[in-house]
Amino acid sequence: xxxxxxxxxxxxxxxxxxxxxxxxxxxxxxxxxxxxxxxxxxxxxxxxxxxxxxxxxxxxxxxxxxxxxxxxxxxxxxxxxxxxxxxxxxxxxxxxxxxxxxxxxxxxxxxxxxxxxxxxx
Length: 121
Description:
By secondary structure, the protein is an alpha+beta fold. It has four helices and four strands; from the N terminus they run E-E-H-E-H-H-E-H. It has a single domain, classed as Up-down Bundle (Methane Monooxygenase Hydroxylase, Chain G, domain 1), CATH 1.20.58.100. The protein has helices spanning 27-33, 39-63, 67-88, 106-109, and strands at residues 7-15, 19-26, 36-37, 97-98. The two termini are 29 Å apart.
């Protein structure tokens, strides 16, 4: 998987003989799925996370015993579901502010939102 962005390294640790696991805080992540969101940024975040999800799924069989891989898999899965739900919710509520929908909308969104990953039931 290849990815480029500017950010801050929060933590780094070795993984295997030549690998490295790095935790990053990036401007792009904050801009697209951070405190202030909009459709364009959320769609970009959904697209990126969907790609990462496919990469994780393709590697799952070979890496299932790897605890670090399972952690990354969980982060990607949860991130994907959160961002997809944020895209669907067209309002601002609590700490979830949509620049393109700045008002709260109790008429349409005073409810719980649930989602399925890959059509699972």
